[in-house]
Amino acid sequence: MGTTLAEKVWADHLVRKGSDGAPDLLYIDLMLMHEVTSPQAFEGLRLAGRKPRHLDQLIATEDHNTPTVDIDRPNPDKTSALQLSTLEKNCKEFGVRLHPLGDADQGIVHAFAPILGLTQPGMTIVCGDSHTSTHGAFGALAFGIGTSEVEHVMATQTLSLKPFKTMAINVNGTLPADATAKDVILAIIAKIGTGGGQGHVIEYRGEAIRNMTMDERMTVCNMSIEAGARAGMIAPDETTFEYLKGRPHAPEGELWDQAVAYWKTLKTDDDAVFDKVVDIDASEIGPFVTWGTNPGQGLPITANVPVPEDIADATKRAAAERALKYMDLKPGTPIKSIPVDTVFIGSCTNGRIDDLRAAAAIMKGHHKAKSIHRVLVVPASSRVRLQAEQEGLDRIFKDFGAEWRNAGCSMCLGMNPDKLVPGERSISTSNRNFEGRQGKGSRTHLASPQVAAATAIRGTISSPADL
Ligand code: SF4
Question: Which end of the chain has the smaller Cβ count within 10 Å, N or C?
Answer without folding.
Answer: N
